[in-house]
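agent: user wants the structure for DUF29 domain-containing protein from Allochromatium tepidum. delegating to structure tool.
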Amino acid sequence: MDHARFSRLLEQAHAGQAIILAKASKPYARLIFAEKLMTAPGYNEDFFLWTQQQAALLRQGQWSTLDAANLAEEIESMGKSDRRSLASHLITLLLHRLKWDYQPTRRGTSWRLSIRNARREIGLILDDSPSLRRQLPDLIETAYATARRDAAEETGLPLATFPECCPFAIERLLDDTQPDTFAPPNTKSTTPA
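agent: tool returned. relaying tokens verbatim.
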């Protein structure tokens, strides 16, 4: 679809005419369809359609037509979502590391896989959003407090069993080449460090 054809379709949409765009050539390949592009349900009525409309408008440089307030909110929300997801995976990683280290007789494939999966997901998030690396110390501190409480509840061990501060160095905690079996200081482990 050439630029002139697309512009005519946008004009039709502005006029409230129903339009359907078929899968288009390279510049518009992601735009599968739009019905009443400018009068279709908005942000609160059909979020998916709204995202497709906003993407099409961005690609065409239709800045004045964008839903700027909601678009800005969604972009900001995407960043917060990555941060929340990172924190959630850190809690999972820390919880399973604590259980692994403080309940050696209950170690199993499930915990090992939870540790690996959390590390993998954390790595993917950090690859996509490297600036979150700078926030790791604070995120780990907060996540550790939650993981510590959860570990005490899940294991039935007293909360005081687990160190008040995270005993794991960031690099070693996230390094998927490290064994999942090393124990924190002052804890006996049946496997080598």
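agent: one observation worth passing along. Residues 137 and 169 are 10 Å apart (CA to CA).
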